[in-house]
Amino acid sequence: MEDTIGLKIYDPFKGQTFRITYKGQDYQVRLLKRDVTKEQEEVEILLDGVIQNIVKKNGKWYFDRIDEDQDFAHDIWRAISLRYRL
User: H/E element holding 45?
Assistant: First the structure.
C-alpha cells in the first residue's frame, strides 16, 4: 500500500471530491489533478486517505500498483467522467 498523507503536506481543499458506493460500501475519492481529459491514460486520486493511480490499458481502467477489484477502478473513472462530461 502507498503511504498516507498528513494534513501538513496535503491541502484538504484542493481537488474534486467524489463519493462512490461500491458493493454496498461507501468510499471517498479525491481527484488530485485539475485538468482531466478524455485522452488521459493515468489519473492520480486519493482513495480513503491513500494516494492511488488508476491507469488506462486497452480501454479499461486498472489500479496501478495494487490488485484491488478492477471494476472498482472502472467505476471511479466513470464517476469522474460523468462529473466532467468526458
Answer: strand 42-47
